[in-house]
Amino acid sequence: MSGNERHYFPGNNTPGGFFSYYRYVIDQKEARKTWCLKGGPGTGKSRFMKEIGETLLLEGHDVDFLHCSSDSHSFDGILLPGFGISIVDGTAPHAIDPVNPGAVDIMINLGDYWDEEAIRKNRMEIIETKEAITGIFKRVYNYLGAAEKMYDDLSLSCERSKSKNYSIAKSIIDKEIEGRHISKRGGRIKRFFAGAITPEGLVNYLPGLIGSCRSVYVINAGIGCGSRSVVSYILDDAINRGLDAEVFYCSMKPESKPEHLIIRELSLAVISSNKYHCYKPPGTEKDITVIDLQEQHDKYGVFLYSEARDSLEMMDELLGKAVFYLGEAKKKHDILENYYAPNMDFNKIEELRLRVLDEIRKMINN
């Protein structure tokens, strides 16, 4: 029987540049071992992690797959949440280094398996391609910065009553959390992204993330309609009662707007649904409650206010431009990979992968 898999993004493309929540993948005090992979593009890091994760999944273990926001089909890490074991890509832009080398973190340099002399023959092409990628990403972040201005304008046009949002949050708290006492030890928060702005468009993994939750609240809310305050009220109350939470943030507001909340201990999920990350409840036995905050929309979901419609159209256009240039950066990155991949000893990397997989199995069984 296969284990349960979850997919999400630990980092994201945002108006302020690449934003990382990689430090929340696993707490050092909870971690048994983290392998930190180093190596250039095309050296096989994503495949290395993907194949280990998929093998362990088939062997019945739960695995979290951490996706790359610059290529949603690529992986930046895997996590076995039940065993404190993870493998992460430690190269730029996330640039993770061992925190407690030897005690927790082990560094693997896939550069040990390449033909350096052959790679150096393309030295100038590699440098120029990387410079081109850097320039394209600056353009991406400029477009996202402009899109954020439209986002802020939409929020002003559609601001809701905080008191009404609090009453909605309180009704959820009363039903799901109220019986728990205030705790001296506050709950812990892990922060990630359920979706990301990628070359493939706006990609999200909401359905799989909440798949194991029995009680799900879906907040239908456009930008500025109040989902942030509802999620924040519930999060604060849960943390005060000692409940650990996973919080998934907005790509446009990666530090200030929690969009989705999962409390595993309660098998509870509170999620925001809109045109950018639409969630349609499946026909299952889950206890699903849909809350509609879109009072500023007509029955077809169109903004009633013309200024809001204008801002939305401009934001969509700017997001489209950002996605287009992320695609251009991906094309350049593919070229960069072609300078490395032919010069890698993938047979030796496969031997290494099997050794790491074997070590993980031994840790699981001990």
Give the secondary structure arrangement, pairings included.
Layout: E1 5-8, E2 11-14, E3 17-20, E4 33-38, H1 45-58, E5 63-68, E6 71-80, E7 85-89, E8 105-109, H2 116-120, H3 123-157, H4 162-176, E9 189-192, E10 195-198, E11 201-204, H5 206-209, E12 215-220, H6 227-240, E13 245-249, E14 258-263, E15 268-273, E16 287-292, H7 306-340, H8 346-365
Parallel strand pairs: 1-5, 4-7, 4-8, 9-13, 12-15, 12-16
Antiparallel strand pairs: 2-3, 5-6, 6-7, 10-11, 13-14, 14-15
The string of secondary-structure elements, in order, is EEEEHEEEEHHHEEEHEHEEEEHH
How much of the residues is beta strand, in percent?
15-25%
Q: In angstroms, what separates the terminal alpha carbons?
A: 21 Å
Shape: globular
Radius of gyration: 22 Å
- Count the beta strands: 16
Number of domains: 2
Largest sheet, in brief, is: 6 strands, mixed
Low-confidence stretches: 296-304
**Could you say which structural class the secondary elements and strand pairing correspond to?**
alpha/beta
Question: How many DSSP helices?
Answer: 8
* Overall pLDDT confidence: 90
- Specify the helix fraction band: 25-40%
**Order of adjacent strands in the largest pleated sheet:** 1-5-6-7-4-8
